[in-house]
Specification:
heterodimer, A: alpha+beta, Translation Initiation Factor IF3, 4-stranded mixed beta sheet, 29% helix, B: alpha/beta, FAD/NAD(P)-binding domain, 3 domains, 28% helix
Chain lengths: 75, 413
């Protein structure tokens, strides 16, 4: 089980979501993807999509307006 | 399986709506190390309401999201930590409570459940498109005024549906009920039914369920299906209210905490759930009115009670169950003169045996829960003896000679 970091700082929607979706496809069940974002719309659509897809999601606020979205892939 | 990381907190609050955030403000301000866990976005159900006009202090009206952002900001100011994730499991069976998310296990001295609930929906086509501020509402108190002179539909015929419908009929011109049952049959009580049938603004469409919701940006038409004839009927409305039940978010507390038949958490007026160190507040509780204003009141009580519980636990372990000397805990009632007059006698006993015995005094009214922990229902007074941090006996005979005799006996053992 590996942990992969995806830095999407400074990137606007829907780029973080698309990048995260592509990355997750290459990963195995149980792997963890950490997505760093600072665009508040990604903080909504990324977790929403991931939850709907059945993955485990946790969001951590690193600083004001900076978040880390933690996604555990569930297959 | 990945090893879950453990973290320790004084208080873990489950749910970041009005109740949870208020509890967080109180706990944070009491300088408790507090963690709040919210499964989706901070603010809870209130964020789905466009205008909050009845929360005191905001005469210009404020959006639900705007108000909750202020709550969040205030809690942050007091040092509360936040996690945005789902709680998967809880374990309240030990003194240290455990709250588990998919990556962590949080250990807490006390837990406040503010997980709220969600309105039950019909599941009809396009429903999601119009939920909350786009034409499908779940709260007459919130949206009645906006429907003055308009036509509204209500789904359901239970007590809540009729009660809210009656309220709405004071504003709207027409209130149309979609009722699933045969003509004249409703789920509400008989008195409400009679009143509803006599209300000239109310109309009933029997044997119907919602087939779909239609409109552009905002709901315009509700398409009802007649269960007997399968015919579809299009009804134009300004707002559709659904009152077909409310689902509290209590799935993970099943079998752990007492729930009502409708699965709300049962608490006393101090938000205590009956499980030591676990409190519940807000919409998840079995209560009469679910509003931001009542959630705030609940949250404040839960926060203060959690703080009290923690300090009582410390008193219990560090003072009452001290291990240095033989302990005698005098439990008395401050309003009872006989037991009050014995207080100086107790002090005398401690002075006489000061090398071996330590006195603690508990007023059973102020320290009601301490008495519960001591498993003591003394009327009007009682002494509990401890040795090495454990209760070793008790007596209702509080005379000086008897107590001294008992203490010497325990010291000699």
């Amino acid at each position: 089980m590996k942990e992969v970091e995806l830095d999407c700082m400074g990137e606007a929607c829907p780029i973080p979501l698309v990048k995260a979706q592509k990355k997750l496809e290459t990963m195995d069940g149980g792997d963890i993807l950490l997505v760093l974002i600072d665009h508040s719309c990604a903080m909504k659509n990324l977790p929403e999509w991931a939850r709907k897809a059945g993955h485990n999601v946790e969001i951590e606020e690193l600083d004001d307006g900076e978040w880390e979205v933690v996604i555990e892939k569930v297959v | 399986m990945r090893e879950k990381k453990r973290e320790q907190f004084d208080v873990v609050i489950i749910g970041g709506g009005a109740a949870g955030l208020t509890a967080a403000i109180y706990c944070g301000r009491a300088r408790l190390n507090t963690l709040l866990i919210e499964k989706s976005l901070m603010g809870g159900l209130a964020t789905y309401t466009n205008e909050i006009a009845n929360f005191p202090g905001f005469p210009e009206e404020i959006t639900g999201l705007g108000l909750m952002k202020l709550f969040h900001k205030q809690a942050k100011k007091f040092g509360v930590k936040f996690k945005l994730t789902d709680v998967k499991k809880v374990d309240f069976s030990n003194e240290t409570k455990e709250v588990e998310t998919f990556r962590n296990i949080y250990e807490a001295k006390t837990v406040i459940i503010a997980s709220g609930g969600r309105p039950r929906t019909t599941g009809a086509e396009n429903e999601e498109k119009f939920l909350f501020d786009k034409g499908i509402s779940f709260c007459a108190t919130c949206d009645a005024a906006a429907n003055t002179g308009k036509t509204v539909m209500i789904i359901g015929s239970g007590d809540a549906a009729i009660e809210e419908g009656t309220f709405l009929s004071k504003f709207a011109d027409k209130v149309i009920f979609s009722v699933i049952h045969d003509t004249g049959k409703m789920d509400c009580n008989e008195i409400a039914k009679e009143q509803a049938l006599a209300n000239s603004k109310m109309e009933f469409m029997w044997n119907t369920i919602v087939d779909s919701f239609e409109g552009e940006d905002h709901l315009k038409t509700v398409v009802l299906k007649n269960l007997k004839t399968s015919e579809l009927e299009r009804v134009d409305v300004d707002t559709c209210f659904e009152f077909i039940g409310y689902l509290p978010n209590t799935e993970i507390f099943n079998d752990i905490i007492e729930l009502t038949d409708q699965e709300y958490i049962v608490t006393d007026e101090n938000m205590y759930t009956g499980v030591e160190g676990v409190f519940a507040c807000g919409d998840v509780r079995d209560k009469v009115l679910k509003q931001v204003a009542t959630a705030v009141g609940d949250g404040a009580i839960a926060g203060v009670e959690a703080e009290k519980f923690i300090s009582e636990t410390e008193v219990f372990h560090n003072q009452l169950m001290q291990k240095e000397k033989i302990g005698f805990i005098y439990i008395y009632s401050a309003i009872d003169s006989v037991s009050r007059e014995l207080l100086p006698i107790m002090k005398e006993i401690e002075d006489e045996l000061k090398d071996v015995a330590k006195l603690n005094v508990v007023d059973m009214y102020k320290g009601k829960r301490l008495c519960e922990r001591l498993d003591c229902n003394a009327e009007p007074m009682k002494i509990i003896f401890t040795k090495n941090g454990e209760i070793v006996g008790n007596t209702k005979d509080c005379s000086k000679n008897h107590v001294i005799g008992k203490l010497k006996e325990l010291a000699a053992k």
